[in-house]
Design brief:
Elements lengths: L2 H15 L3 H5 L4 E2 L2 E2 L6 H6 L7 H4 L16 E3 L4 E10 L3 E4 L2 E15 L2 H11 L7 E13 L6 E2 L2 E6 L3 E4 L4 E3 L2 H4 L7 E10 L1 H4 L4 E6 L2 E2 L5 E3 L5 E4 L1
Antiparallel strand pairs: 1-2, 3-4, 4-6, 5-6, 6-7, 7-12, 8-14, 9-10, 9-13, 11-12, 13-16, 14-15
Protein name: DUF4352 domain-containing protein
Keywords: Membrane, Transmembrane, Transmembrane helix
Organism: Weissella viridescens (Lactobacillus viridescens)
């Protein structure tokens, strides 16, 4: 993955799962005190209270300081007080095409999260646009490759919908957030670019979360003209 893609992926993962949505948008990105580039507005600074990680966490062999966990069972705690635990990390398969654009599934990570403070819960609820998001919740980070078979750069939001369980359909209107790079930088002619989306998995669907259906959004050129339509629904096994 390009450095820019890694930056966007890391930033967006923090934005959604680590409860720093409005702070990141205003230039402040941090894990337990590490702040990213940019100046935070006075209002955001006043509303940000750094969570004091308990000694029991600091002493845990599974605790990862100032970074996202990469081993199953490990966890970190954000500055707002969200515990993020990596529960599963699996390769997934599946391909779908819409016109001159193709998609290939890569991997999925399941993250078990706990908002330990009211501030953390409120911010994550706003970021995911799920007003009733519980204190303990599960999220899935879905990675895929998109290939542009045209002779022009294309832009796309990424994933349009992810559905599973009983009437659980996540969209950008609620429960689903895409990484930024595909819509900001786009995919160059003939190139393949990694994309990802983060979705909420409701409690009633966690145990049966063995498959999901995914649809990818339309793509456009720099003039705003549609290059490819939304893809057919693709069923993916976990």
């Amino acid at each position: 993955m390009k450095k820019s893609a890694m930056y966007f992926a890391f930033s967006m993962l923090l934005l959604i799962l680590m409860g720093v949505g409005y702070l990141w948008m205003q230039g402040g990105l941090a894990i337990n005190g590490q702040v990213g580039a940019g100046k935070r507005s006075e209002k955001a600074a006043e509303s940000s209270v750094v969570y004091d990680v308990p000694k029991s966490d600091l002493k845990s062999k599974n605790f990862v300081k100032n970074a996202m966990p990469t081993r199953q069972g490990d966890y970190t705690v954000t500055r707002q007080g969200v515990r993020v635990r990596l529960a599963e990390d699996k390769a997934i398969q599946g391909e779908v095409t819409s016109g001159p654009v193709s998609y290939k599934m890569k991997r999925i990570q399941l993250l078990q999260n706990e908002a330990r403070t009211e501030q953390a819960q409120n911010v994550v609820r706003k970021a995911l646009n799920v007003p009733n998001l519980p204190k303990n919740y599960t999220a899935a980070e879905i990675h895929y490759d998109i290939t542009n078979h045209t002779d022009q750069t294309i832009l796309t939001d990424g994933v349009a919908t992810v559905s599973y369980g009983y009437k659980d359909v996540m969209t950008t209107l609620g429960g689903l957030v895409n990484g930024s790079e595909l819509s900001n930088e786009g995919i160059a002619p003939g190139a393949t670019q990694e994309g990802y989306a983060i979705v909420w998995v409701p409690k009633q669907s966690v145990k049966s979360f063995k498959t999901f259906n995914i649809e990818f959004a339309s793509t456009y050129n720099a003039d705003g003209r549609e290059v490819s339509e939304k893809t057919p629904q693709l069923k993916v096994n976990i």
